[in-house]
Structure formats: structure tokens, C-alpha cells
UniProtKB/TrEMBL annotation:
<keyword id="KW-0862">Zinc</keyword>
<feature type="domain" description="Integrase catalytic">
    <location>
        <begin position="250"/>
        <end position="352"/>
    </location>
</feature>
<keyword id="KW-0863">Zinc-finger</keyword>
<dbReference type="Pfam" id="PF00665">
    <property type="entry name" value="rve"/>
</dbReference>
<dbReference type="InterPro" id="IPR013083">
    <property type="entry name" value="Znf_RING/FYVE/PHD"/>
</dbReference>
<dbReference type="InterPro" id="IPR001965">
    <property type="entry name" value="Znf_PHD"/>
</dbReference>
<dbReference type="InterPro" id="IPR036397">
    <property type="entry name" value="RNaseH_sf"/>
</dbReference>
<dbReference type="InterPro" id="IPR012337">
    <property type="entry name" value="RNaseH-like_sf"/>
</dbReference>
<dbReference type="InterPro" id="IPR019787">
    <property type="entry name" value="Znf_PHD-finger"/>
</dbReference>
<keyword id="KW-0479">Metal-binding</keyword>
<dbReference type="GO" id="GO:0015074">
    <property type="term" value="P:DNA integration"/>
</dbReference>
<dbReference type="InterPro" id="IPR041588">
    <property type="entry name" value="Integrase_H2C2"/>
</dbReference>
<feature type="domain" description="PHD-type">
    <location>
        <begin position="51"/>
        <end position="105"/>
    </location>
</feature>
<dbReference type="GO" id="GO:0003676">
    <property type="term" value="F:nucleic acid binding"/>
</dbReference>
<protein>
    <recommendedName>
        <fullName>Integrase catalytic domain-containing protein</fullName>
    </recommendedName>
</protein>
<dbReference type="InterPro" id="IPR001584">
    <property type="entry name" value="Integrase_cat-core"/>
</dbReference>
<dbReference type="InterPro" id="IPR011011">
    <property type="entry name" value="Znf_FYVE_PHD"/>
</dbReference>
Length: 352
């Protein structure tokens, strides 16, 4: 990259960034650099179809094309990724894979990442867990009390076939199962990680879960779960604004563009000065330094007036967004002398 003469875009910015450092490049063979070499190799590679046989009963692979494979860690059989519904990124992310015919005996200590085929808890499980949940037990106990306020509560939380449900203030009157705290993760996992609902976003997952279920802080729990989902972090695109084009300042003559900045406060000098105003000609790099006792907009305006009277007015002054630079006094001087002002990007002093 450093020897190329035709760099564009990000390569130019990287080349400029690397020029700030004093370094040397040494080649190290893969045998001596085993860790990066291993990380750079894909777990699942492209294999010709005729070298292996896909054991999936409904194979969708095309024998005439090169396809991606994955091997079962239980029976060592090979399967097409397309038959299992995996993408190549997801397959590279897996630690282990077990086919449907194998019954993996995985302990919690392994923390194996695999394709989640979640099944929602049945109604009996909801009933048994609702009885144990403190919030649901409190609601049920209040419903059984005979008062007008509790009557309103019983309309919001009807009890149907032994299952507490939630209607709320919705006009359609659709009742939703109140999910006990112990089953919240199971419900979210089913609606986010199963092949039926393949890692949908926050809004779609909340809508889908909200059609049948309800619990306190449901939206925030789903949002927190999806933000921590490792598959989404690896595979979902990052919607970030791309880097903009370089806008270099081009000058054609001396005193055309001046760069102005303040330095300090420094230890007080014998004359009582604390600051230094630095003014540099962008074309010739001619530099002027002005010691200052106070760094205010009026002081800067007075110096600019003296500068223009001696050297003449420039076309443009480049400065940061400091309060002295954007002050009314400096703006009036620039308007009076017909000088255009340009400001650098905040928190990017390299522009000036």
C-alpha cells in the first residue's frame, strides 16, 4: 500500500495515518505465527459436491455447483448449509453442530453455540410457573378480593382456564398470556432465534411477541436480549454513515488563507502574558505570534485590525469553534474587511 501510486478513498487515509509512525515491516511465516494464521482460516470451506454426500432427507444442493458444507460432530455426516438454513457467517460462528439424529449430551460448562430450535412452553408449564411467580400471585390475590377497584383489575387480567391473561386498555379485547419471569427468556428465544423467526429486529420481535404474550417491561427486555445476541452482532450490518470525501484546503498565493489558533494558558510571563495567538499563512507557512494577557473576542479583533492594516486583508481565516473565534467582535472585523471565515470540525484539531 505504501508503494502504490494509485490509492483512493480509505487507502489514502490509511497511508497518511501510517506515515505518522516510524516502523518497519517484517515477514513472518505462518508456521511461526500460528495464532493469527489459525484465525484467518475459515472453519467451513467450499467443497466440491462429488467429494461428499449430503445426508439431509430434503437435500436442496445443486450437484453441478460448488456448495458449502458442515459436518455433524456426533455422527461425522456431512450436510449442505443451504439444507440446514445456515448462512456461511453463521456456520463459521458455530463451535459445534449436531444433526437431528444425534442427541448431543452438552453440559452448561461447554456453552456450545448452536442453531436454536426453540419450542414454546406448553400451557401446563405456564400454569405451574404462574403460580410460583410473585407478581402474578399478587395480581391473582387482588382479583379474588371483592371491591370495585379489583373489578377493574379483573377486567384487565382475566383468568381463563387457570391461566392469567392480560387485556389492558386495548379496544380489540384480545387476551394475552401473562408470562412468568422464569419463562421470559424461553419466549424471547423462540421469537428471535428459531428458524421460524430468524433474528428479526427489535420492533418486529416486540410486535410478534405482543400478539400472544405480555409481561412488565416487555419491550426493554426484548431490546436488551437482541442487543446481546451474538449472532446479530456478528451477522447484522452496521448502519454507519461512511467516511466523507477529503476536503483539503488548496491555496494558490501567499496571504490567501490564514490559520488562526490560541495557545495557553501558560505560566504568567514578566509582562503578565498568559496566552499566545498563532497566525500562520497557509501557503508560505509564515508564522506570527502575539502574546496576550487576556484571550477574548475583542482582543482578537484588535489584533486582526492591526494585522490587516500592516499586511492587508486575506481572503479566508480558518479557526476552531472556540468562543473567542466565533465572537461577535471577530465576526464584525471580518465583515468590515471582506474576509471569509471557515471553521474546523469540532474535536478535530488536525484540520487547522
Amino acid at each position: 500500500m505504501l508503494r502504490s501510486k494509485d490509492l483512493k478513498g480509505k487507502l489514502v487515509r490509511w497511508a497518511l495515518k501510517l506515515q505518522e509512525y516510524d516502523y518497519s515491516v517484517h515477514y513472518r511465516p505462518g508456521a511461526q505465527n500460528v495464532v493469527p494464521d489459525a484465525l484467518s482460516r475459515a472453519v467451513v470451506g467450499s467443497v466440491d459436491y462429488d467429494k461428499n454426500v449430503c445426508f439431509h432427507p430434503d437435500c436442496k444442493g445443486d450437484p453441478s455447483k460448488t456448495v458449502n458444507w458442515i459436518q455433524c460432530d456426533g455422527c461425522d455426516k456431512w450436510f449442505h448449509l443451504i439444507c440446514l438454513g445456515f448462512s456461511l457467517k453463521e456456520a463459521n460462528y458455530l463451535d459445534e453442530y449436531f444433526c437431528m439424529n444425534c442427541s448431543p449430551s452438552m453440559t452448561s460448562s461447554k456453552q456450545t453455540v448452536h442453531k436454536v430450535e426453540s419450542i414454546l412452553p406448553d400451557m401446563n408449564r405456564f400454569i405451574s410457573e404462574q403460580v410460583k411467580d410473585p407478581f402474578i400471585c399478587d395480581v391473582m390475590s387482588k382479583i379474588h378480593q371483592s371491591s370495585s377497584d379489583m373489578g377493574t383489575l379483573s377486567k384487565k387480567f382475566p383468568l381463563e382456564d387457570g391461566v392469567l391473561k392480560y387485556v389492558g386498555n386495548s379496544s380489540n379485547g384480545i387476551s394475552k398470556i401473562v408470562v412468568p419471569a422464569k419463562l421470559i427468556q424461553d419466549v424471547i428465544t423462540h421469537y428471535h432465534c428459531s428458524t421460524t423467526y430468524p433474528h428479526m429486529g427489535i420492533r418486529k420481535t416486540v410486535t410478534k411477541v405482543g400478539e400472544k404474550f405480555w409481561w412488565k417491561n416487555m419491550k426493554s427486555d426484548i431490546e436488551s436480549f437482541i442487543k446481546k445476541c451474538r449472532v446479530c452482532q456478528f451477522c447484522k450490518p452496521v448502519y454507519q454513515k461512511p467516511s466523507g470525501f477529503m476536503q483539503s484546503t488548496v491555496t494558490t498565493a501567499p496571504w490567501e488563507v490564514l490559520a488562526m489558533d490560541l495557545m495557553g494558558p501558560f505560566p504568567e510571563s514578566n509582562d503578565g502574558n498568559l496566552y499566545i495567538l498563532v497566525i500562520t499563512d497557509h501557503f508560505s507557512k509564515f508564522c506570527l505570534l502575539y502574546p496576550l494577557k487576556r484571550a477574548t473576542g475583542k482582543v482578537l479583533a484588535s489584533i486582526l485590525r492591526q494585522l490587516f492594516c500592516v499586511w492587508g486583508a486575506c481572503k479566508t481565516i480558518v479557526s476552531d469553534n472556540g468562543p473567542q473565534m466565533i465572537s461577535k467582535a471577530v465576526a464584525e472585523i471580518c465583515i468590515l474587511w471582506g474576509v471569509k471565515r471557515a471553521f474546523t470540525t469540532p474535536y478535530h484539531p488536525q484540520s487547522n
